[in-house]
Amino acid sequence: MRPVIRVYLYDENGERFFGEGPLRLLHAVEETGSLRSAAQSMEMAYTKALHLLRRAEKVLGFAFTRRTIGGRGGGGSVLTDEAKEFMQRYESYRDECVHADKERFARYFADEK
Q: Which domains does the chain have, with CATH numbers?
């Protein structure tokens, strides 16, 4: 037996807007330099990926990416400094939640196998 903790962020209306999915998408954008390529790497429709990011951007009040239009060199996306900082804070918060839960689980279920 083991616990599973999932950390989601919700807006003031109680609607989820950020979690592991959007985080993975942002990491993929950072790796690929493109939202379209990032979505493809996750087997996600581009429109869904765009919707996820726009929704979170609206709630948070800042852009996650800077987009460039295609052309000779092709378009692409890069993460903003705000996005990188937010991702780092989310990951630190998530990791602390998971660690705290492991401690509590051990306290309450130490005898379980």
A: 9-109 (1.10.10.10)
